[in-house]
């Protein structure tokens, strides 16, 4: 009973936190309302006995929102977003899309013939979730991750304005490197 | 619906929730001990009335002064976020120690306790920045950004430092990690992870080398506009974070309650106080890390070092099993 109330309470907090993102008038409040929403979701996941997934959700989302707040304040405003500003635009289209999406999804939930539970949950549901998600595709995942990292690095290298010749001179012999932002190791 | 977080079969006994009050009291005493020691060290370094012993009572005088101080207000401050940031540090520290076993007892025997601690220390990113943001003051905002810049440098090494004991113990449960150090403490055979962890503790307590976020060169940084009780709670939160970090190191690296003569719980406290004293003492022994320069130190030196440490630990763990 108590766990049911707590579960639905966190669900409500998650939805209200998500709604607050569009209601508040500051980038900092919007970002941290979203963080609050994610924390509530993470706590809900703990009730599904996916302890690892729940705690990692809280960890990653708080970290991500702390960084995102910086970018939001930097880029999302006109002045930049140090002043109060509206979090919504294109209201009429947005409301139409939101209502339609909600109706379609809600209809789907009500129409679908939900399956009854077969068997009982395994003792370690986190392990079971991981195996059903990744199990036969582990090799693919293991190959994809270095490819993804290489793609990110290559993307940053291609996008960077300055090259190693700017840093180290035409013969790459200039030490320490000429950086606009010197680092602590003196490379 | 099932009960959340079933308790695992670990070597630890979970105590009734009411004992959380005792846990909080111990955290408070540890934080006070750290503050008194820092007061004594400050008095020894800077002189002042009463000498070194007089410094021991400085925290009490400072607390009394702050409690009588009028609250400073700023124009267009975001009061809600400001208060959440200032008060959150203490709450976070309290949540951290819930998973730390005191000998054989713990309040919250979570099977992923190490991750829980990690999630709590990431909370500090948000809280310090919110403290800086809320006041609507340029200096305190600069302080908040400085902390995030440090965070980008210290957090990943700290995470991978926490990975090493978990790999060796083959568990994320704090009690099991402590029990896995039978005879040989993890601090002995994974020294790099231990040192990086201690650096991380200093960092999330905004302590010593990681204090530019509240530095005097930016008029107090994130806490520039904090006054009265708000400032007192913020400072208590920092000391409590330092104490919680030291307490968590005991089951992770220092063998938990293992030791001769004394009972387990006493050894946990002795080790925590010893480590806390070292952390407090380091404040005056290490130079401040500039946030912009520390980024490269974190990524070019600390992160590879701690990854190599993890590799060594993993190879040894595989070889043993």
TrEMBL record, chain A:
| Keyword annotations of the record | Membrane, Transmembrane, Transmembrane helix
On whether Transmembrane is a keyword of this UniProt record, the answer is yes
Alphabetized Gene3D superfamilies for the sequence: NADH-ubiquinone/plastoquinone oxidoreductase chain 6, subunit NuoJ
Q: Which domain of life is it from?
A: Bacteria
Keyword Ligase applies: no
Q: Where are the transmembrane segments?
A: 6-24, 31-47, 53-73, 94-112, 138-160
Q: What is this protein called?
A: NADH-quinone oxidoreductase subunit J
UniProtKB/TrEMBL annotation, chain B:
Q: Where are the transmembrane segments?
A: 20-43, 80-102, 114-135, 147-168, 188-207, 239-259, 265-282, 294-318
Keywords assigned by UniProt, alphabetized: Membrane, NAD, Transmembrane, Transmembrane helix
**Cellular location(s):** Cell membrane; Membrane
Membrane is among the record's keywords: yes
User: What family does the entry list?
Assistant: Belongs to the complex I subunit 1 family.
Which PANTHER family does its entry note?
NADH DEHYDROGENASE SUBUNIT 1, NADH-UBIQUINONE OXIDOREDUCTASE CHAIN 1
In Swiss-Prot or TrEMBL terms, this protein is called: NADH-quinone oxidoreductase subunit H
Give the source species: Nocardioides flavus (ex Wang et al. 2016)
Gene designation per UniProt = nuoH
